[in-house]
Amino acid sequence: MFTCFCYSMKLKYSYLKRRILLLLITLGIGSVLYASNELKILSDSLHKMIDNKPLYVEKKEQRINQIKHLLRDSAITPELEYNINTQLYNEYKKFVVDSALHYVDRNCEIARQLNDNYLIYQSSLYHSLLYSMCGKYREAEIILKNIKSSELPQSLLPLYYDTHSRFWQYYSISAPNNQYRKQYDIYQDSLLAVNQTLFNYKLSRAYYYISRDSIKSENIIRELLDMEKVGTPNYAMITHSYAMLNRHLKNEDKMKKYLMMSAIADIGNATRETSSLQTLALMMYEENNLADAFKFTQSVINDVVSSGIHFRAMEIYKFYSIINAAYQTEEAKSKSNLITFLISTSVTLFLLIVLVILIYIQMKKTLKIKQALVQSNEELLKLNEKLNGMNSQLNKKNDQLSEINMIKEHYIAQFFDICFSYIYKMEKYQNGLYKIAINKCYDELIQKLKSSALIDDELNLLYARFDKVFLDLYPTFVDDFNALLKSDEQIVLKQDALLNRELRIYALLRLGITDSGKIANFLRCSISTVYNYRTKMRNKAAIDRDEFENKIIIL
Question: What are the φ/ψ torsions at residue 303 (nearest 5 degrees)?
Fold first, then answer.
């Protein structure tokens, strides 16, 4: 029992282990796909930013011009001019060094005029920093040697140590030397000890701990990222620091991600001291992505030329020639492949054109045959339609003939029936008269011969038969006839009556008997009576009275 329980638990543990492993693999694949997609989006954004760089430069120049406009005030004081020049220095420092130098030179003059030691030291340190950036290390060093830290107020010490550390940092790039790098580290330590600005202090600490305590460095950087708005110049510096931390941790994807974010922010702010884009160019070269490496390098060189920040030029020129040569080789190879492709494509296209021409000629022949067949089919269809029409007409004629034959047979039979009936009645009437004559009942005989009752009865019976036979042939005659009359003049028949005398006149017209004499004989009336009836009806017509009888004939 216990063995079975252990076996069951072992199976459940094995199943759970497989599920957890599958989940971890799925999460791992998902995170890799997400990271790849994120880098693709950032790369596309960076390319667009580089392409639109002139727009951001124009915005920067507009902002600078707005600040310059403040200097045009005739009532401006030296102190206010100094502050405005400092703003312009900060705007130009990483944009155009020569312009920044112009406004710092002016501030040095103002500081001497005001005899303000604080402003003299501040403008001199700004001067030294700009000299370091544009590669005038001798001039920068002279200024720094003439300033003693013991004479400076506490608030200028961070600027003093920062200017020194940057001098040795830029100098070590131009002339690599371990001693220069050590001097940079010394002044960085001093800067950390006196830094009074919260952001600069935290960012300096983050840099300081990158190689010493990566966890502490990451915590500081994350804290700064949470505090800073995306896209600002400070955001560019923070993300650059995060990229350097990931380089130290050998996390290339995250390094690339934050370098792109930093470069995007730098371009958006028209910052031309673009360390992030320079590092990205080198990474692209190492990944053999020569197109991006060349584009990024070209952008950095354009910034160096426009800004005059020469220490970056010293860095970029080291591998620009290598990237350029590799890119040109790749371009030449691509051109060679393109030429080969174009030649092969041209030959294929020529053969394709020949084939198309042959197909076209064949198609024209086929089309002519097809058109001839279509024309023949159309003619056959027309003949078929004609035959169908003729067959239809023949069928109608046959149907009409059949119907006429049936009518003939029916009414011939009725005709003979009527004739035999009259012969029988006449025979019967004759026999009756004969018996009366034999019995010498002359008065009764004379009475019978004078009486018209028999003739009247037979006429009524004849008219009844005529009415029935006619309405069998033309069942809608009465309604159609009334439709031709005015609404208040229409004929209303007596109950059980099929036709009256007026309708019988027009019934005979409908049957083709137009002679008034014949009509009068049939109806046993005078010709004038028939004429009066016809005139009376024409006057009641709702249509043209001259066309009335013609309409009756075709009802």
Answer: -65, -40
Q: Which of 278, 284, 210, 194 is nearest to 249 (CA)?
A: 210
pLDDT in tens, 186-229: 888 888 788 766 687 788 888 888 888 999 999 999 999 998 99
Q: What angle do CA 205, 207, 212 make, to 5 degrees?
A: 85
pLDDT of 77: 93
For the chain, the C-alpha Rg in angstroms (whole number) is 61
Residue 526 DSSP class: -
> What is the DSSP code string of 320-334?
HHHHHHHHHHHHHHH
- pTM score of the predicted model: 0.54
pLDDT(47) > 90? yes
So where are the chain's domains? 466-553
Beta bridge partners of 541: 485
pLDDT reported for residue 9: 47
Which parts of 230-309 fold into alpha helices (H)? 233-248, 252-268, 275-286, 290-307
Q: What are phi and psi of 216, to 5 degrees?
A: -65, -40
Cα separation, 188 vs 207, whole angstroms: 10
How many C-beta atoms surround the C-beta of residue 319 within 10 A?
16
